[in-house]
Amino acid sequence: ACVEQQVKITFTGSFPANAIYNWNFDGATVVSGTGQGPIYVKWMTTGDKHVTLGVRYGNDSCTHTRLVQVKALPAIFHMTGGGSVLPNSPGVPVGLSGSQTGVIYTLIRDQVATTITRQGTGSAIEFGPITQPGVYTCKARYDGSECGRMMEGSVTVTAGNANYEIKICIVSYDIASAHNKIVWN
Q1: pLDDT tens digits, residue range 120-157?
Q2: pTM of the entire structure?
Q3: Can you spell out the DSSP letters for 129-151?
Q4: Which of 6, 11, 54, 53 shows the shortest CA–CA distance to 28?
C-alpha cells in the first residue's frame, strides 16, 4: 500500500454478514465500509501496519492479523522530450527527468496506458522514439503493487510536415541601418 492512498480490505471466511466484526487498522482512517467489507482505509504514515480482525458469532470467535507494508509514494519526476514527428523519421524522444529503482513507469498517451513500460534505474529514462501523435504523461508504481502516482507535466508529439519551403513575402533594403530586410511567413 502507499501512504495517503485508499486500500480495499475485505473479510473472506465462513462467518455470516450478521456476525460481529471488530477491526483494528493500526492507525488508518476508515474512508468507507463496515462489517465484512469491503472497507476502504488509508494510512497517513509509512511503515509496517498490522490489520487485526476479531469475529464473533454466537459461541464461535476468531482473530487474525495481517501485515500491510505502507510505502511512500514514488518520487515525482518531470516528463521530457516531445516535438514534431516528420514523415519517415524514427520519431521524437519522450522520457522522464529521473526514476527510482523498484518502480515501474508506464507511458500514457491521451489518458490511455500504452504497452511501453520501463523499470526505474535511479537515472533519467527514455521511452524510445515516439511516432504516434498525442499528449504523453506517465504513471509510476512500485513493482508488484498498484501503489502509484502520476508524474508531473506532459509532452506533446505532433505530426510534422516535411515541406520546409518558406515563402518570402518582402525583400527590401533599410537605408538607415544599411542592411537588407527580409519578411517571411
Answers
A1: 999 999 999 999 999 999 999 988 877 889 999 999 99
A2: 0.68
A3: EE-S-EEEEEEEEETTS--EEEP
A4: 6
Q: pLDDT tens for residues 7-37?
A: 999 998 889 999 999 999 999 999 999 999 9
Helix (H) or strand (E) segment spanning residue 75: none
Q: Are 94 and 155 in contact (CB under 8 A)?
A: yes
Whole-angstrom CA distances from 140 to 1, 51, 107, 129, 173 are 14, 26, 9, 20, 57
Pick from 153, 152, 137, 145: nearest CA to 72? 145
Residue 54, class by beta-carbon neighbours within 10 Å (0-12 exposed, 13-18 middle, 19+ buried)?
middle
**Secondary structure of residue 34 in the 3-state scheme:** coil
Q: Which three cell numbers stand for residue 131?
A: 511516432
* Residue 43, amino acid: W
Whether the CB-CB separation of 3 and 43 falls below 8 Å is answered with: yes
Under 8 Å CB-to-CB from 51, ≥6 apart: which residues? 9, 23, 24, 25, 26, 28, 65, 66, 67, 68
